[in-house]
Design brief:
This protein is of the alpha+beta class. It has three helices and eleven strands. The radius of gyration is 16 Å and the shape is globular.
Length: about 170
């Protein structure tokens, strides 16, 4: 992934390495809460917790077709995801689209199941016995958020603040 880096730190710290953020995004061993920000058609912000996975330079997440975040993404696919990682607070901005490729949906369902959510693919959707109450009833669509810009602020040494642009 081609990356342009801008150091946002005002205290003299070096720019953060994107590889540091990726290493944390790929680590699914602990619990973390991700927040997806979408925009209603009237311009009002909507933020919802989501279970997100970083795979192949994309953020994947699920949402029920009637959920507000799904309706918002259908009308305006630009969105942002924020997460506190082990040593960095991160915001990823980009464009999300529904994933309909059955092989990709199956792969991501397996990755979710490996983390303890008993998800499985049924064609181009994901289903399970349960999900977060905010997800709505099964089945759930899979979305891929392709990053355009990310912002990181380190919460442990080496400290710093950085903006990355991708593409």
């Amino acid at each position: 992934m081609k990356t342009t880096v801008k150091n946002l730190d005002i205290y003299g710290s070096a720019p953060l390495e994107w590889a540091r953020a990726v290493k944390e995004l790929e680590d699914t061993s602990g619990h973390r809460t991700c927040w997806l920000a979408t925009t209603d058609p009237n311009g009002r912000a909507h933020i919802a917790g989501v279970g997100a996975l970083w795979v192949d330079d994309k953020v994947y997440l699920t949402s029920g077709p009637r959920a507000r975040k799904s309706r918002n993404l259908a009308a305006e696919p630009r969105c942002a995801l924020s997460v506190t990682l082990g040593d960095m607070d991160l915001v990823v901005e980009g464009t999300a689209s529904k994933v309909t490729d059955e092989a990709t949906v199956a792969e991501l369902a397996e990755r979710y199941a490996a983390q303890g959510w008993p998800a499985h693919a049924e064609g181009s959707v994901i289903t399970a016995e349960y999900s977060a109450p905010s997800a709505g009833p099964a089945p759930w669509d899979l979305y891929a958020l392709v990053p355009e810009t990310a912002y990181g602020v380190a919460t442990a040494e080496p400290y710093g603040a950085t903006r990355w642009r991708f593409g």
